[in-house]
């Protein structure tokens, strides 16, 4: 569980140097080191340095030419020619091939036109209008904040003035952070390979004087944003664009951390659903989930009308992957206030209803066949597009695409979300019109990005090619406001309830599907359990039979053993008697043998005596024969 009430050191976490030298205009050139009086800062934005650089800047600037082509000099520019399919396909192919970057042009050569956009048929340069308009909105928001501060009690103003005395200006911190990141990436022995395509000169000038760069070179800035902010600089650039670096807000965040919110249980429950596959947010109660909890809880205390809405968690998660906690909180506040993101999460969700109304109207205007098919299938935009606008596309899209989308949103405003939504529909139109309700809704929720899975640059290109003018959006907003006015607050509340009912019905439908799946799994498991039970019973019966057979065999073995022992004893006794008889007979035979031997000896002696007598008689006979002869 996240540590609630964990204290956070108040102040800027972006850098912790001694007072840095404020960089003058034009001072931050590529390869130039930080001022000698400045220690290397420990940037909070350094946390956003990714070792695997995105290839977002690897395609040629020519592929986004429609976002940065200069207008003909002098007079009013003719209406911009709508790019043909061949041109778009060629540009997309160039994006996909990731061609090496051509020699980087200077700002002056790219933006040779006036800093004020040339009027087109719609009264402005469509490619740069949103960037410049966002800058104007930011200045107005800053002026409103200053006026609000002027109306505060003297004690509040004195406290803010005291804070300013103890802090460096936000811009100086961001500049020092940029210099630290640059030195870290350049390192010893030259620029690192993963940052080889980073235009340090351009981004250094942006960090040094953002407003001037945007006003003087809007096309270059727009093109760079579409190419993607470098990963190592993304958090800093976001803060720079939205003026998110605010010591007062960081102090307030540290105070809010010590308090308890009534939404804590709901927030805690939803933490595991926010980027569940991302390693930083996977561990329950880990550092990532703790940071999510702290920021969301603090914002629920900061803006009690909004409190907590689940979509906020995905926006916070994307911010946390690019900056520290306290900076993410400040940027979240800026998005809510200055970008009117807050209207998406109010109880009536008036901002979400407006976005969905604008999306529906633009969809009907630009892709009528798709709109009619969706209508025929009774698929409403709030069934699938709500999650796009409420999470900045972070609910289902990969983070590599979400960060690129957020680059454009920060620079051009939340209106750009409509262009991304329409680009997704346009690229998938052929597939959409072939699907029925269930498959269609599933595809709209989870399958639209598949065509861009290997080429996020193509999504940015397609969104830039969608023609949605500010005047048209303003007209649709006015129409929606008139509808709301005519309908009255009761109708708005009813629409909010209907939207909530549709979401609840969708949730119920999803839960019914999940229940059906679980029920099928339960039946399968129950059948498996019954089979296993029958097998177990059969095994038990077989085991009983085997045990009885074993007992029987053991009894037989015992009887056989006794019989064998008895037979062996009889055999031994019989053999012993036989052996005794044989022994006795052997003794008798031995005696007979001895007697025979004695007889033989005596016989031999008699034979010898007879032989001697014969020999003597023969001798005598011979003598007698001689006497007689």
Automatic annotation (TrEMBL):
KW Coiled coil (keyword) present: yes
Region (Disordered): 1-125
Composition-biased stretches (Low complexity): 33-45, 65-79, 91-100
PROSITE patterns: TBC_RABGAP
Pfam families, per database record: RabGap-TBC_2
SMART domains, per database record: TBC
Name listed for the protein in its UniProt record: GTPase-activating protein
Keywords attached to this entry: Coiled coil, GTPase activation
Matching InterPro entries: Rab-GAP-TBC_dom, Rab-GAP_TBC_sf, Rab_GAP_TBC_domain
GO molecular function, a single term: small GTPase binding
Compositionally biased tracts (Polar residues): 10-19, 108-119
Membrane keyword on record: no
Coiled-coil portions: 494-528, 572-627
Rab-GAP TBC domain location: 228-413
